[in-house]
Amino acid sequence: MMPADYLSVVLLIAGGIFFLAGTLGLLRFPDVYTRLHALTKADNVGLGLIVAGLALHAESWTVVGKLLLIWLLVLLAGASVAHLVAAAARQRGIKAWKR
Amino acid sequence: MTLLQSVFDALLGFALLWLAWQALASPDLFKGIVLFIAFGLLMALAWVRLDAPDIALAEAAIGAGLTGALLLAALARLDKSSWRGFGRTPVRPPEGNNRDVIHPSKRDTKSAHEKTRKPKPITENGKGQAAFCGLLVVSLSALAAGLGYAVLTLPSQAPGLSDSVAASLEASGVSNPVTAVLLNFRGYDTLLELGVLLLALFGVWSFGVVPERRESSPGPVLDRLSRLLIPWLILVAGYLLWVGAHAPGGAFQAGSVLAAAGVLWLLTGWRLDTRFSGWPLRIILVAGLGVFVVVAVVLILMGGRLLEYPPSFAAALILLIEAAATLSIGITLAALFLGSRPETGPQR
Amino acid sequence: MNPAFLYALVGVGLFTLGLYALIVHAHLLRKILAINVMASGVFLVLVALATRTQGAAPDPVPHAMVITGIVVAVSATALALALMLRVRAETGRAELAEEPLE
Lengths: 99, 348, 102
Prior knowledge:
The complex is a heterotrimer of chains A (99), B (348) and C (102). Helices cover 82% and strands 0% of the residues of chain A. Chain A is built from 3 helices and no strands. The longest helix of chain A has 31 residues, at 61-91. Chain B has 2 domains: 1-101; 177-348, no CATH class. Chain B contains 12 helices and no strands. Chain C has 102 residues and is an all-alpha fold. The longest helix of chain C has 32 residues, at 60-91.
């Protein structure tokens, strides 16, 4: 294995850990707002790490560009959808969780 | 590595069955649909594991995305009270005739029953119900065992038609074997499929105008998002259409991405201007089928057989048909999402 | 075991699960979901069997059929949902009228 391969493995595993944390938050957090918070933040970073890990393996710069584009589009869509879900929940009168 | 893959396959298979069960048995319809969308996304993973990236693309866009959007839109039109949304505490408004929703006053007494998520059979009578359920489970188990046995006794090596496809791929005009089968070797399947799509739309339109949901204003975020995403979606659709000749992609994947753009646009409250919802819309809707039929007829008149492309024109003909089909598939699927015939007339 | 057969068996399981839900549930939206799950099961069996020869490229003909099938399934789903909404508008319930059992 080349050094780049080790780096890529580390990045992919780190990305997986972020996804795991986000999913754990989705399952364990008490209400829709906290769940959204866990999911969007952790998954955006996780996907970024996975994209970085895959980009080290890419055959050409076009593939790197496509991977980056996917990440940017998911960031955009994820942030907007999180906002829309939260706004819909607030409109429906769901109270934010308090300890 | 193979052990890791086997573990992944087993986990994925288990997750698919579990999600399907949860989606079908969940007492909350909204939750069931969301689980079904998750099920579609896992199906896309399964397609990748089975070396079928073309299907994975189609499944992710159509099976999970568009079917989910259709189901959620239908649920919203059904009755606001038959689902409870995504709040923390379930609030279930009473609804007499909906057996899937449990009446709030009966909630406590039925909570133990609800926890098991036992589906409620059609028969009312207690004894008959148990007998019916038992018989059903026994006969379906027998069916599953029989089908499983039939699958397992098949020979483990079978190239099928892949050798014939590989042998004629050179003359088909494209180098992606799936596109070659879809648009060339079995082009009549695709021709008829475009017909089915159109017929489904005629069916939906013939139910008359469904009272339109009152759209709330999209708000700045959705508006901005759609303005940013729709040009990208159209670009991706064009890319998928073009790349389908030699890599995973093609008219169906491109058409469904186009439909996603249409659905997003419809969600922001945009409606087709009535000037264009008459003939112009209908011409686009039938363009795919029309171009296909014209090509088929011209080829027959030129002395060939049905959809037998001359190898020198094959690539151009396939691209022409695919371009028209992409447009038609995209607009038809978006129109199916809208669910009612757009108003026609000179001015709104 | 060849993973193709594992997926084919999962497909059989999905088909049976969907059939069970189709028979047992009265609500039409659930029946539509059940039919979609059944369709996924059939597609999974088809594609899994297409790829069962190990070390060879999968058979593209079932792949093309499944892509066709996915598009037909979504159009059938849209039509079924429109029918369901019409039944709801006519009768006030999203269920079919029950015939008394003899």
